[in-house]
Write a structure and sequence with these properties.
One of its GO terms (biological process) is DNA replication. The chain has 251 residues and is of the alpha/beta class. 49% of the residues lie in helices and 10% in strands.
């Protein structure tokens, strides 16, 4: 028998509420996880290959300068904590290939997922450029592109909210890979990304990883887009230059 006077209506209601609390907590968690997965599985990966990485996978001994690796890992961890706690910001990871930018961006997403009900989406900018290239080839490609744009910037008519956390991975590759010199990125993609950046600025979190220096991005992208996407806040900018190419040392 419950230790409560069930003839006392208020006491009975309080008792039942308290009893249901752990169950509600579990439902809330399950619901958040379901919501996260529903959005995150729409991510656009390079070569269609989803990648997983957590802070526990980040090994400082992969780097010659262990101190630098520890510091950069800690800074990314702190930013993830702030975002999970409700702050929105643009984050900028720049540096040479194979130094761990994508990995740490994914680790941040993993931590944010574990600590908040926020949604997230990973978009390989290069794969996005390919969708733009092939958008008129078939309806499925076009729909896939529109679906991603709706998730990145929201669509009021369709009642789709922008994702809370967007990873724009390898930003700039789509400009650099096409020719030897840094060329302007195609106009339709610039316009698409501009409206994404404009819709998200100040309200949602966008993590950009790039091999390019800001000056190189300026040759490829319109400055109005860059000012909405690339943060100038030194606390939110992590530079991976001078670190070892871990990918190359794995083969
Ligand atoms: N500190 C680290 N600990 C464990 N694995 C690492 C570390 N740094 C990099 N790696 C591994 O090295 C590989 C390359 O890392 P990652 O893809 O994150 O590099 P990147 O900086 O994004 O490179 P790119 O500029 O070419 O996109 C991945 O398989 C990643 O898991
Ligand atoms: Mg990368």
């Amino acid at each position: 028998m419950p230790d409560v006077d069930l003839t006392d209506k208020q006491a009975a209601v309080d008792y039942l509420k308290k009893k249901a609390e752990p169950l509600h907590d579990e439902w809330r968690k399950e619901n958040a996880m379901h919501n996260f997965n529903r959005v995150y599985r729409k991510s656009l990966w390079t070569g269609n290959q989803p990648v997983k990485f957590t802070f526990a996978d980040w090994k400082t001994d992969k780097q010659a300068d262990k101190k630098q690796a520890a510091e950069i890992g800690n800074r990314a961890w702190t930013l993830a904590k702030m975002i999970a706690g409700g702050q929105n910001m643009n984050v900028y990871f720049s540096g040479d290939p194979g130094t761990g930018k994508t990995s740490l961006a994914l680790a941040m997403v993993d931590k944010i997922r574990n600590e908040s009900g926020k949604t997230a989406l990973f978009v390989s900018t290069d794969a996005l450029a390919e969708l733009y290239d092939r958008r008129f080839d078939d309806k499925a490609t076009q729909n896939r592109l529109y679906e991603l744009i709706d998730l990145m910037q929201g669509n009021r008519q369709l009642k789709i909210d922008p994702v809370d956390v967007l990873v724009l991975d390898d930003f700039g590759t789509e400009g650099g890979m096409r020719t030897d010199t840094k060329s302007q990125v195609r106009v339709d993609m610039q316009k698409g990304l501009f409206s994404v950046a404009d819709a998200r600025f100040g309200k949602f979190t966008t993590i950009v990883t790039t091999n390019n220096k800001t000056s190189e991005l300026q040759e490829m992208y319109n400055e109005k887009l860059l000012s909405r996407l690339i943060t100038r806040n030194p606390e939110h900018r992590l530079t991976f230059n001078g670190m070892v190419d871990v990918r190359a040392s794995m083969i």
